[in-house]
Write a structure and sequence with these properties.
The chain is built from twelve helices and ten strands. Strand 7, helix 6 and strand 8 form a beta-alpha-beta unit. It has a single domain, classed as P-loop containing nucleotide triphosphate hydrolases (Rossmann fold), CATH 3.40.50. It is α/β, with parallel strands linked by helices. The structure holds guanosine-5'-triphosphate (GTP) and magnesium ion. One of its GO terms (molecular function) is GTP binding. Its cofactor is Mg(2+).
Length: 351
């Protein structure tokens, strides 16, 4: 991170309070606190798959480059994605709820596990994507904005008797139903947290980059916070309102390729916004890789994976050094770099 961490009033503009829903927030906050303290009592989280996944994007053969844009990085191979999925497979020791914190100063400061944080406007799908990533309903999700009111941390990759390997943080949203104090604490976390390796900024694929997203992007650049964009709810772009859209999407190659083309055009348009030309003036831009995902549609009947989730898992492993580039216990157990014979061919379905 660049410079000395400090919070200025303009930094918080993106997290502006919308007081219309404050009463509702207070109520939700109390309820969430009591629920969270209940869940803190049991360290390991009950095994259950997210229940909101009812639809299927019926193409198991979509490649990472069909649904994401890689211009500064190398797209993952099927073996990388399989490795990432294995890493995130739920077990008795993963995922584990580590803490909920309303204030930055109450977060345990001496942990050693690398962290990644998910930020974005209220209702953009931050909590849902964490549930999809870890394969369990560990976060509260709601159609009403402002559901997540604290910084919630979940450890993954833990083994019996061992610490988690990576920590995922679900953050409160900014914009609608947000509160100024959430913004203050999130900014403190983003600027000061030494364990933070990458911040994932979620953008709703139907709405695109809004003014308050732009403000947050400027903050991330100004403070040199490593960040990457994920377009959420991509099922809406590929299949519209799911039921009708899916039929269309499955009907033929033409519909399918025109939707995918449309998505690629959207991603390309975002490039200059995410990486302004002069990084010496504007600060370092986002990683040259935009991922997309949905937590509402699976890739196939057989798979438990939502579309795009494996790509995000691999990105998290890269951000935290668990992709095999740094030798760790986990990477020794199963190397993502396999021999030529073991490596799946390009026709292997990618999830
Ligand atoms: N169609 C579709 N809906 C989604 C997707 N992800 C989340 N949703 C819905 O969007 C709403 C908000 O999801 P959340 O995960 O609670 O969003 P959030 O960003 O955590 O919201 P806050 O905690 O309020 O900031 C819920 O009704 C979800 O079911 C998706 O990929 N596709
Ligand atoms: Mg949430």
């Amino acid at each position: 991170m660049l410079g000395r961490p400090s919070i200025c009033a303009s930094c918080l503009a993106g997290f502006r309070n919308v007081s219309r829903l404050q009463k509702q927030q207070l109520h939700q906050s109390k309820r969430s606190k009591s629920n969270q303290s209940k869940s803190n009592k049991s360290k390991s989280i009950a095994h259950s798959l997210p229940t909101n996944i009812t639809k299927i994007i019926p193409f198991t053969d979509l490649q990472p480059t069909d649904i994401a844009r890689y211009w500064d990085t190398i797209p993952p191979e099927a073996s990388n994605l399989a490795y990432a999925d294995k890493f995130f497979t739920p077990s008795r020791h993963s995922p584990v709820k580590l803490f909920s914190a309303a204030k930055f100063r109450t977060i345990p400061f001496d942990s050693t596990e690398p962290e990644v944080a998910f930020i974005g406007r209220s209702n953009v799908g931050k909590s849902s994507i964490i549930n999809a990533l870890v394969g369990q309903e560990v976060c509260w999700v709601s159609k009403h904005p402002g559901k997540t009111t604290e910084m919630n941390a979940f450890g993954i990759g833990g083994k019996k008797g061992g610490e988690s390997k990576i920590v995922l943080l679900d953050m409160p949203g900014y914009g609608k139903a947000s509160r100024t104090e959430w913004g203050i604490e999130i900014m403190k976390y983003l600027q000061q947290r030494k364990q933070l390796r990458r911040t994932y900024l979620l953008i709703d694929s139907l709405h695109g980059i809004k003014d308050n997203d732009q403000e947050i992007l400027s903050l991330l650049r100004r403070y040199g916070i490593s960040h990457q964009i994920i377009l959420s709810k991509v099922d809406r772009v590929l299949a519209g309102r799911l039921n009708k859209g899916l039929k269309l999407f499955s009907r033929g190659y033409e519909v399918r390729s025109s939707r995918l083309n449309h998505l690629q055009k959207m991603l390309k348009k975002m490039e200059p916004i995410l990486q302004p030309p002069d990084s010496r003036v504007d600060g370092p831009g986002a990683l040259g890789e935009i991922l997309t995902c949905t937590s509402a549609a699976k890739v196939s009947q057989e798979s438990q994976n939502c579309l795009g989730v494996s790509n995000i898992r691999w990105s998290i492993l890269k951000a935290t050094g668990f992709d095999g580039s740094i030798e760790t216990g986990a990477s020794r157990e199963m190397s993502p770099i396999q021999s030529a014979e073991d490596r799946p061919t390009l026709s292997t379905p990618v999830q």
